[in-house]
């Protein structure tokens, strides 16, 4: 790492390939280090770069969807990942789905044939203390053990996580405020922190909900994910399996949550906690889950007050290595206390193929700019890219959880307007902003 003119990128996944491509576009040499095939991850099956480890869908390509806006911004910024997806797409309605083999081959070929990129197949084990040129860590959700250990030491062990335990997040506008009520738990003379919205369940509603939860379809736990749960953070359906009343003595405990409208304590209460400063999103407290996405929509809509809930992010529990970005990262995707250290991809606490690649664009450009001694960039707040970066660097550090792009992350649109109109306006504002950002 003595050559000051090169950038080193660790991880030839979606973010790493994107970052390497962006760096080379700015005329800077890249050393891209990928551990496969020397060492493989528990989810990857091939030796190709940018392998899609699960679904072959990069989600919606429509501007009516937040993911579609993000993709369009990435297209405009010359994203290699989106180029590969556009060139290898398969019919999937409004979604951008790809032939996964051709997609990965296309990217591998582009990287291998790029004269400015030197692809090295070895495990990168340790972040040097005294970096002399920019280093981007894009080693993904299944970062190797030695590198995880090195990140842990660098970042303080409390700021590195090894699995997602995510509760669903719903749009505040889709909650029925005739049914839910505001109250914080008051128990033993102590009020709990923060304002909660409470969904009251009577006896009949509670047991009906438990039946639905128990009979719902779940995602299978893969071998390498077994044993990741802590007792204090079990999936909601596992809690319910332990006994029909276990949930109402756990996350759905009604104690101290008197409904101010009738002065009574419901049989059970599902709590919603505000997710962002704008109060446009709420998470269902303690409802981390492995229910399949359509099942989450069906079953959680049985909770009184959530009959029309719009899900901004579904709950999940899977293995995932990520850092506490609000604590550690700057909006340039530089580590707070090291100008030469960047992170990109899922390890930053974004969730999904497209979001991970999107972070590779910004880290890549900024690492190259460090070499060129140019000012670094952060996309405007009004864009999807800017909103995602704002979330990962400005969310509440204490409860930081990975996030995919969704409309709740964009700046709120003021004024009375139908949801579709609001979304159209958000899309237009984002695309106007990204184009004036690219061509000032
Ligand atoms: C089981 C599983 C299923 C998933 N399903 C989906 C899905 O359906 N849809 C979706 O959008 N997202 C899914 N994700 C998330 C998905 O992995 C990410 O969205 C995306 O792949 C992240 O891109 P990335 O570049 O950050 O990491 P990756 O694409 O994982 O790339 C990281 C690369 O770094 C390499 N690497 C790791 N450690 C080292 C090291 N020490 N030295 C050198 N190289 C190293 C790895 O081999 C890998 O090639 C899933 C994740 C997992 C674990």
Topology:
Elements: E1 6-10, H1 14-25, E2 29-34, E3 57-60, H2 66-76, H3 80-87, E4 89-90, E5 95-98, H4 100-112, E6 117-121, E7 135-137, H5 145-155, E8 160-166, E9 169-171, E10 181-182, E11 186-187, E12 190-191, E13 196-201, H6 203-215, H7 236-241, E14 268-274, E15 281-284, H8 293-300, E16 311-313, E17 316-323, H9 325-328, E18 334-335, E19 338-343, H10 353-371, H11 384-394, H12 419-438
Parallel strand pairs: 1-2, 1-7, 2-6, 7-19
Antiparallel strand pairs: 3-5, 4-5, 8-17, 9-15, 9-16, 10-13, 11-12, 13-14, 14-15, 18-19
Helix pairs in contact: 1-10, 2-10, 2-12, 3-4
The chain binds flavin-adenine dinucleotide.
Question: What's this entry about, in short?
Answer:
By secondary structure, this protein is of the alpha+beta class. The chain contains 12 helices and 19 strands.
Question: Can you tell me about this structure?
Answer:
The protein is built from twelve helices and 19 strands. 31% of the residues lie in helices and 18% in strands. Helix 3 crosses helix 4. The two termini are 35 Å apart. The strands form five sheets. The protein has a six-stranded mixed beta sheet, covered by helices on one side. A six-stranded antiparallel beta sheet has the order 10-13-14-15-9-16. A three-stranded antiparallel beta sheet has the order 3-5-4. With 440 residues, it is an alpha+beta fold. Strand 11 (186-187) and strand 12 (190-191) form a beta hairpin. It has two domains: 6-163 and 319-438, FAD/NAD(P)-binding domain (3-Layer(bba) Sandwich); 169-314, Elongation Factor Tu (Ef-tu), domain 3, CATH 2.40.30. The longest helix has 20 residues, at 419-438. Bound molecules: flavin-adenine dinucleotide. The site of flavin-adenine dinucleotide has 35 residues, from helix 1, strand 2, strand 17 and helix 10.
């Amino acid at each position: 790492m003595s050559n000051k003119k090169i950038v080193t990128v660790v991880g030839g996944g979606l973010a790493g390939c994107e970052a390497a491509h962006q760096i080379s576009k700015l005329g800077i040499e890249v050393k891209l280090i990928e551990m496969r095939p020397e060492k493989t991850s528990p989810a990857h099956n091939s030796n190709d770069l940018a392998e899609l480890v699960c679904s072959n869908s990069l989600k919606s390509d429509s501007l009516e969807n937040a993911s579609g806006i993000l993709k369009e911004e990435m297209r405009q910024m010359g994203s290699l990942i989106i180029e590969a997806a556009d060139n290898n797409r398969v019919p999937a309605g409004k979604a951008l789905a790809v032939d996964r083999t051709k997609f990965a081959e296309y990217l591998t070929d582009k990287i291998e044939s790029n004269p400015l990129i030197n692809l090295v197949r070895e495990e990168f084990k340790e972040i040097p203390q005294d970096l002399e040129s920019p280093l981007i860590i894009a080693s993904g959700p299944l970062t190797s053990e030695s590198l995880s250990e090195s990140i842990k030491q660098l970042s303080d062990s409390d700021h590195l996580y090894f699995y997602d335990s995510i509760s669903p997040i719903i749009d505040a506008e889709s909650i029925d405020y005739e049914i839910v009520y505001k109250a914080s738990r008051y128990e033993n003379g102590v009020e709990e922190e923060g304002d909660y919205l409470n969904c009251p369940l009577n006896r009949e509603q509670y047991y009906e909900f438990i039946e639905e939860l128990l009979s719902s379809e779940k995602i299978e736990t893969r071998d390498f994910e077994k044993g990741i749960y802590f007792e204090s953070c079990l999936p909601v359906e596992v809690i319910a399996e332990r006994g029909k009343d276990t949930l109402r003595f756990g996350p759905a405990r009604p104690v101290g949550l008197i409904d101010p409208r009738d002065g009574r304590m419901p049989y059970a209460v599902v709590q919603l906690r505000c997710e962002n400063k704008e109060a446009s999103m709420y998470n269902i407290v303690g409802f981390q889950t492995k229910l399949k996405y359509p099942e989450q929509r069906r079953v959680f809509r049985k909770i009184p007050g959530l009959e029309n809930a719009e899900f901004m992010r579904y709950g999940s529990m899977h293995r995932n290595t990520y850092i506490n970005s609000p604590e550690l990262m700057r909006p340039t995707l530089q580590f707070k206390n090291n100008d030469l250290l960047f992170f990109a991809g899922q390890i930053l606490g974004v969730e999904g193929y497209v979001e991970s690649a999107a972070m590779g664009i910004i880290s890549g450009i900024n690492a190259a700019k460090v070499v060129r001694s140019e000012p670094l960039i952060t996309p405007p707040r009004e864009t999807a890219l800017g909103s995602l970066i704002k979330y990962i660097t400005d969310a509440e550090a204490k409860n930081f959880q990975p996030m995919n792009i969704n409309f709740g992350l964009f700046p709120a649109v003021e004024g009375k307007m139908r949801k579709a109109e609001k979304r159209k306006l958000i899309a237009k504002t984002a695309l106007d902003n990204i184009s004036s950002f690219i061509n000032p």
